[in-house]
Amino acid sequence: MDFTSLTVFLQAAVIGVLIAAPVGPIGLLTMQRTLERGLAAGLATGLGAAAADAVYGAVGAFSVRWLIDGLTQARTPLALGGGALLLVLAWRTWHAPVAHSAAPARDARGLLGLAAGTFALTLTNPATIVSFIAVFGSLGAGRPSLPSPLWMVAGVLVGSAAWWLLLTGAIAYQRQRFTPAWRQRINRASALLLGGFALWQWGQLV
User: Fold this and answer.
1) pTM score
2) CA–CA gap between residue 148 and residue 131 (Å, rounded)
């Protein structure tokens, strides 16, 4: 890795953190699952979102124009599907029984399912591609020769994953401080917010 590639990688990693850090439906879901199910479940949820960020980063970095155009045209069905998925998650979160201790991961398939769910949910926001295109364009501005787009994609993935590891680790460390009654209140509040995000996403289509 030369100096230019390293610089682009580090800049993309910062972008990955900035994209992942704002509290939205994915961040809320990750925190709730960490608090209720433990570190492994929360981290799997966050890494699913990080993988989706990397996919959108790849689309922007490699300038896959036909895919960008297709996702832009599919904005309405994607938003409708994403909102419906958020409502399902809100319903399940509201009615989920509160565990008195973190349930250990039963198997890799269960964790993979959590990751796949947030991966699909994150991909329902194709507007993210526009941000990646603008950001990656600015990263290449003023450079006589661009490094491989793979460094940009890898940076986004590492930055996003690092954020989810930090967030879930901090919540898991403090988990035992929350009583079952408090965790139930948090679950109910999370369900309401997830439902609100779904309605807001649909409202953007009007």
Assistant:
1) 0.79
2) 19
